[in-house]
Design brief:
The protein is of the alpha/beta class. The strands form 3 sheets. It has a 4-stranded mixed β-sheet. The chain has a 4-stranded mixed β-sheet with strand order 2-3-6-9, with no helix packed on it. It has a 3-stranded parallel β-sheet with strand order 4-7-10, with no helix packed on it. It starts with a helix and ends with a helix. Bound molecules: zinc ion. Zinc ion binds next to helix 1 and helix 3.
């Protein structure tokens, strides 16, 4: 008996279908063949393993069990799935999105020069350049947005510069305060404070 014949007899033996004379033949081969003995041991172990798992004998049932053990196909949208898995990160990213959205709309608001004040008759405006000539006085507050203000004269109030720049000559005199405002930064800190106070409850 060769090893191939031995292997096929082993399967019959494990199935309980091995007749007396064939069983004797197989036994004879196993006594002299170490590799077939090892093979049979492994078959027996596998057989024992399969038997130890009830309801796994029928191939159809096994397929069902394997299928049910596999991860379910993800029909739900990955977005909601992600939110469920990362609630904290989701809140943060939604906040960022909202923040960015407001930020962009604010940023794109108006880029045109805006000059506000009660007394603008002595002011020279060229493009986005605002000029208070030396010897001239602006009565009250002066607000300049999206531009550069050059003051050589006097401002009899506050100078508010929003999203712009300013320069004061040695002859300049500002009676009130100079208030530079960066809308993006102000708005950002306003939002952060608002959010922190909300989070703090
Ligand atoms: Zn053999």
């Amino acid at each position: 008996m060769n090893c191939n014949e031995s292997l096929s007899l082993m399967h019959e033996y494990l199935d309980g279908d091995l007749a007396g004379p064939e069983a004797a033949e197989l036994k004879k081969h196993l006594l002299v063949c170490a590799s077939c003995r090892t093979a049979l041991k492994q078959f027996e172990r596998t057989e024992a393993l399969v038997r130890s798992m009830p309801r796994m004998n029928a191939p159809d049932d096994m397929t069902d069990r394997i299928m049910s053990a596999l991860p379910k196909p993800k029909r739900r949208s990955t977005w909601t799935h992600w939110i469920r898995r990362h609630p904290a990160a989701s809140v943060a990213s939604v906040f960022l999105l909202v923040m960015l959205g407001s930020f962009m709309s604010l940023w794109n608001d108006d880029k045109d020069l805006m000059v506000k004040g009660n007394d603008l008759q002595n002011i020279v405006i060229q493009g986005d350049y605002v000029y208070v000539p030396a010897g001239q006085t602006v009565h009250g507050n002066l607000l300049v947005q999206n531009g550069h203000i050059q003051v050589d004269g006097n401002v009899d109030g506050n100078l508010v510069v929003i999203d712009g720049s300013y320069n004061l000559a040695s002859t300049a005199h500002i009676a009130g305060k100079i208030v530079p405002v960066d809308r993006a930064i102000s708005w950002f800190w306003y939002k952060v404070n608002e959010w922190i106070s909300l989070a703090a409850g």
